[in-house]
Structures are given as C-alpha cells and as structure tokens.
Amino acid sequence: MATPYQTPLKPEHCACLDKVLTETPGKLQLAKDCCEDGLPAQDFVDQLQAQLDTAQRLKARHFPNRS
Fold it and tell me: Considering the domain boundaries, does residue 22 fall inside one?
C-alpha cells in the first residue's frame, strides 16, 4: 500500500502511530471488559477501535518498511 508520492509524514509521526498501536489494544480490551461487566463503555470501544484502525492504515501507507 505504498504511495506514489513522498509522504508528508515525518519520523515523529511514525513514533506517534507506534505509540497508538502499542497502547490502544490494552485500553480497547479494558473498555470491552467494562462493557461485559455492564458498564456503558460501548462508545469508548468504538472510538478506540476507530483510532486503532486509522493508525494501522496510516502506518501501512506512509511507513510501509517500518514495523
């Protein structure tokens, strides 16, 4: 999914995406557990999932060679 243009994103943006990709799964699981426990956290689950999906797409497109 590499782009035919030079990405406008810089290494510090990749570091930010890495942080989201590292920290969000645990937060997402906590929010899902809260839902299972009957707490009203579905909106938070949806928001975290959207953030995780966006970070994954951005990293794949703009930093395809960085794992």
Answer: yes
